Each structure stands twice: as C-alpha cells, then as structure tokens.
Amino acid sequence: MNDEQTLVPPTERGGTLHNEILPQLRAFVVEGNVPDGGRIPERELCEMLGVSRTPLREALKVLASEGLIELLPNRGARVKALSAVEIAELFDLMAGLEALAGRLACEKMTAEQFDRIEELHRSMYLHYLRGDRPGYFSDNQEIHSALFAAADNQPLFETARSLQDRLRRVRYAANLGENGERWKEAVREHELLLDALRRRASGDAAEILFNHLRRTKAAVIAYDSGN
Amino acid sequence: MNDEQTLVPPTERGGTLHNEILPQLRAFVVEGNVPDGGRIPERELCEMLGVSRTPLREALKVLASEGLIELLPNRGARVKALSAVEIAELFDLMAGLEALAGRLACEKMTAEQFDRIEELHRSMYLHYLRGDRPGYFSDNQEIHSALFAAADNQPLFETARSLQDRLRRVRYAANLGENGERWKEAVREHELLLDALRRRASGDAAEILFNHLRRTKAAVIAYDSGN
DNA sequence: GTAGCAAAAAATGAATTCAAATAACCTTCA
DNA sequence: TGAAGGTTATTTGAATTCATTTTTTGCTAC
Question: A84-225 sits in which CATH class?
C-alpha cells in the first residue's frame, strides 16, 4: 500500500518501527510544529512518518505518558498547553533536579568535566559582555547539559530531559523576554555556581542552582503572563 | 470471540480500554507477580485482562517508557531487573525528589497538613517502641505520601510515584533487612524532619530528607549485596 | 436568517489478519 | 549419546478491517 520512501534510511533502524518513529514524533512536537492545544490527526502523522496507525498510536501513548501531549478519548491527540500553575510546578521540579545534579556533580565529576564547564562558562560570559543572547542561551544550555552529564545518573538525566522537552517552548520564549537586570543576575549566579563546583561544595551548589531556577521561573511567569 | 466477563465492572470504565488496563497491568508488575527478568507472554496477559493484543501492547509500551519493564525487539517484554548501580542511581534521584518535597512542603503546607504529619509521626514512633516493623513501615510510607501531598506539585508527585513503583520491591526487602541500629537512626532523622517542618525551615528539611534517603540507600545496597 | 435536528462523513478504538522473526522440536549423523 | 541442522510451531510486529463515536454538513421548521 505504501510505495513512498521513508525519510530515514533503513540501515539505521531502531529494531522496531515504534522505536524509530518515537524520537521523530517527539522532536516534531517539541520543535513546536504544532500550535499549543492544536489537534494532531493520526492520518497526517501516518503519512508524514510513513507508517500505519498501529505503531503511531503506540508512540502517541508514550508521548502522552511523558506529558507532552494529551489523549482525549475518542477525540484524538492534542499538544498539551501549559497553564501558569503547571509551568510554575514544572519549574519547581526542574529546580529540584538541577539542585540534585549540582550535588552529584560535586561528588562525582572528574577534573576534565569541571574544566569543560569552566570553559563553557568563560565562553558564555563573553557572549554576555557582547550582548549576544542566542550565543549566551546556547552556552547556558550546554553548561546545564554538562552538569547533568557530570552528575552521572541515568534516571535523573532521563527525567530532566523529559522535563526540558515539556518546557522547551516556554523556556525559549522566556530567554527572549529576559530583561537586562535579570540577565546580569543570572550571570552572577553562574559565577557562584562555578565557585561552588570548584570547591566541591555540594550543598552550596544545590542551593545556588535551586534558587537560580526559581528566579528563572519567576522571570518566565512574569513574561508569560504579560502576553 | 471473548465471552468471559472482565474482572472490572463496566461501570468504572476509564474511557478507553487502554486506560483501564494500564493501572491493572502496572499493579500486576509492581506487586511482584512476575520474577525479576521474567518473561511476560502477551497471550496470557490478554486472557488475564480480557482484551485483545492491541490495547495491551500500547500499555506495555507505556510501562516500558516508565522503566518498569523492558521491551526487547521480537523477544517480548521482561520485567526490568535492577543492577546495584541502577538501584543506587534511583535512590539518589529519590533523595533529590524527597528533598524537593520537603522544601515545597515547608513553603506551602497548611497547618492541618502539618498536624496530620505530626500525628503520623507519633503513631510511627509508637510502632518503633513496640518493635512493630510492618506498622512502622506503613506509617513511614504514609508520612512520605503526606509530604508529597503537602508539596502540592503534580509533576513532582507523578515522578515520585513512578520511581516508588520501580523501587517498591527492593525497598520492601530493605525494610525487612533493616537492622536495629539503622532503625534507631532513621527514627532520629524523622524527628529532625518534623522539627524542620514545624519551623518551616525549607533548607533544613531538604537537607535532612536528602541525607535520610541517602542512608536508606546505603542500607539497601548493603542488604541487597548480601543476598 | 437562525436554531435545531438528522444524516453523512470522518476519525478514533480495538479486534483480526498477515508476515516475519524467534523458539521449540525432531531427525540425522558422527 | 550428543551435537548439528532443518523443519514446525509459537510469538511478536505491523497493517488492515470493523465498529463506535464524534464532527460536520445540510435540511427543515420557525
């Protein structure tokens, strides 16, 4: 029935069709190709991914369990629109996870991993001085990624990735809306973090990261409500 | 084809078959009805739940994404057996989540919620004095549940529940194996926690809970490796 | 012109069907 | 007796089919 070529070469298959399309579908949603609360007809997705409805629906169930989409009985899938309360809750959770990552990183990271974070920090600071927000944002993301990598905890990493996916859209919006004062404050917080990491002060790192995310949350809420 | 009655009355349907069987299937796995690494033939589960393979497989995919089971391509589902490293990682994550719950509870809990926790604490202490481990364990679980409820954060609650499911088996084993010294220590930690909650000292509560879970982890690892 | 209802069209939920891969079994030969 | 190979049976992966629900469309009545 399906003569079209799949977009993914058959060489790099992930075992099952379901495992193949899940990352693609997740990326499609996270990337923001569908408006908030927008409906996603199964038929279109099937054609897009070149699979039948069975594996597609399995993937949708997984995305729903991750909180990325909503599955209303008999009424299809919608991308989950986040209320202000939900955004706040997700940020608090993210703050807790970052705090944990900071703690574990202090305990477990290698000298090389610290050096890498320090280097990223310097690069990010330069972007800040130049007023280069995209560059700053990119380095910032990488620092947090490096932190989770240094924490060396797979379940933590997975949980954080999932949360990150759910927050990506609003997070990006927040970055754009970030005002100069908050930006300056964020840079200062990053300096404190680097110092705590250097001293392997796990409690301090946790506290700094928690409050850092808390303030980011406040900035996002302020920006988001002023829509 | 299927004339048998479903075990669940049709009155309390969850909209779709998938939503109906997912909790049942999860309970079945968590309860420990299948040995570690044991295979789960789809056919049997279908008969047990009274559904066809389609909704069952959707549910299995979700359980796999929750980390409760493993889905090997063309080789079916197995309950995920946890290595010592994985157990340690899950406990560290749980410690971070409990710490967060403590923090948020300090910020948000009502007087009634605190009173309830205090009451549970008293009950638990009595069980401790009597040497009633099951009673202690039960109250202990309820205290932690009450803590997460007081934290009032849905994503946190969900994440913790999922983790709890993954750890339930080993956690129960740990409780049985817990020695007297560790038990005494745990009770002391709970007293400190209650005090921190009373003072609404979020940082203290977080620190106490984190270390509490860390020590539980150590006890579990010690017990588990001595199998 | 609009509100309400009916019928048709479309989309979803789930069982069945078909194909491919794995596992079990049985024969054969050393 | 035991191992190797091939054949059958079982199990899984995925497409198709069928039934049910929702949504849309169009008609009628007011």
Answer: mainly alpha
